[in-house]
Amino acid sequence: MTALDQTQYSVLTENVRMKRSSGRSVIYKKKQEVLIMTQNEQSFEEKIRTLQKWIDESENTVFFGGAGVSTESGIPDFRSVDGLYSQKYDYPPEEIISHEFFYAKTEEFYRFYRDKLLAPDVKPNKAHLKLAELEAAGKLNAVITQNIDGLHQMAGSKKVFELHGAVSRNFCLECGKRFDAEYIMEHTPVPKCSCGGLIKPDVVLYNEGLDDNIVSGAIKALSGASLLIVGGTSLVVYPAAGLLRYFKGSHIVLINKSATAFDKNCDLVFNDSIGAVLDRIKA
Ligand code: ZN
Asked: pTM surpassing 0.85?
């Protein structure tokens, strides 16, 4: 125990002792809660120091982010139970955001897309901002993300591999002309090009393959990294699980609100908000 730990411990046990008159079972329960609480608080501070040290020492750090990074900006995760499943739609989100559905029921696709995925008013959160700061300070080499909201670039990150594409990019299926998100928002119900062609978001839908160039860029970044920080993803699903095996560096840090099956493979695990953790790091 460090000096600080000892102090906290005695203060807390003192509190427990003062409650002795209230009966044995209560005392026991209180003491357990107190001990668990101190342990978590101490380890959080220690873990922050470790993460800071590893970032400062690392020659090549890469961040890999999942839906949890965006949910802290208020963007719902349509894969999570408390996400869009509870919303009222005639089809489940994963069916709407599929390759087949886009062509079969384009109007319904765009209704959902504008409503749930375009999210024009969202802003980068503390995690996006800190990652951009770290890159500018030469302490972060690349961001690899499964999110499509473009918030990393909005925060100032330059080297971003968007595995699932981005809502800010849309193109005509006939002539290839590019359109921004605003054009999609304004041209209802189905956005068309001046040539008459259908416009499709540059987003990887279910049953579509990932972009080869982006995947190879992400693999190159991962295989050259010595420190990997993973945030807001359980890492157990494709493509994260497959990509992560290219990482051959020394430390993997996982920041995810809930515990995951991947925790045991990591050198440092925070079951906390990614914004709250990264906000404590100095660039
Ligand atoms: Zn066109």
From this structure: no
CATH number of the domain bearing residue 64? 3.40.50.1220
Amino acid found at 147: N
Centre of ligand 1 from the C-alpha of residue 138, in Å:
41
162, β-bridge pairs: 145
Name the one residue in this structure whose structure tokens are 């209180």: 30
CA of 151 to the centre of ligand 1 (A): 27
What residues flank ion ligand 1 with Cβ within 5 A? 172, 174-175, 177, 193, 195, 197
Is residue 158 located within the same domain as residue 270? yes
Q: Rounded to the nearest whole angstrom, what is the distance from the C-alpha of residue 238 to the centroid of ligand 1?
A: 33
d(CA 82, CA 257): 14
**What's the 185 CA to ligand 1 centre distance in angstroms?**
17
Q: In tens digits, what is the pLDDT along the chain, a chain of 283 residues?
A: 333 333 333 333 333 333 333 434 344 444 444 544 444 555 899 999 999 999 999 999 999 999 899 989 888 776 554 555 556 678 888 889 999 999 999 999 999 899 888 877 889 999 999 999 999 999 999 999 999 999 999 999 999 999 999 999 999 999 999 999 999 999 999 999 999 999 999 999 999 999 999 999 999 999 999 999 999 987 766 777 789 889 999 999 999 998 888 888 899 999 999 999 999 999 9
List the catalytic residues: 164
Examine the domain organization and report whether 57 and 35 are in the same domain: no
- Facing residues of 142 across strands? 62
Q: Which of 167, 146, 149, 151 is nearest to 234 (CA)?
A: 146
H-helix or E-strand spanning residue 139 = none
What's the gap in Å between 111 CA and the centre of ligand 1? 21
